[in-house]
Amino acid sequence: LLHEKIVILKAYSELFIDDWEGFQTLTGSALAKKLLVNPSEHPLFYIEPPLCSKEYRQKLIELFFEEYEFNGLFMHKAPVLSTYLFGLESSLVVDIGAEYTHVVPVV
């Protein structure tokens, strides 16, 4: 049984944020209570899923700069970073997760 004061938030569905308010709550709590960092003193490295729309990406950027005031931001697609990890310039990345599967060519 879960304790009556425990609240479970699931802000993501298949890699994308569905509940923006829940995402803000989770992110704010992680920064203030767990990581103990002031975002204005650090840049953020955000690994984004493949197939992110321009609008989705813009909303994330606005949130990170306006709500949390990070002093810098680097965003990159996960398949590209996986390719670079192995020192390659191109590859076929197969990413199998609990809720999704992506096959992405990186050229």
Which short descriptors sum up this protein?
single chain; 107 residues; alpha+beta; two-stranded antiparallel ribbon; two-stranded parallel sheet; 3 helices
Assembly type = single chain
What coarse outline follows from CA principal-axis ratios? globular
User: How much helix is in the residues?
Assistant: 25-40%
Q: What is the number of helical segments per DSSP (H or I, 4+ residues)?
A: 3
Structural class: alpha+beta
Residues in β-strands, percent? 25-35%
Q: Low-confidence stretches at least 5 residues in length (pLDDT < 50)?
A: none
Using only C-alpha atoms, the radius of gyration works out to: 16 Å
Our measurement of the CA-to-CA distance between the termini, rounded to an integer number of angstroms, reads: 49 Å
- Strand arrangement within the widest β-sheet reads 1-2
What is the mean predicted local confidence, pLDDT? Answer: 89
Query: What order do the SSEs take from the amino end to the carboxyl end, as H and E?
Result: EEHEHEHEE
Largest sheet, described in full? Answer: 2 strands, antiparallel
Q: Got a strand count?
A: 6
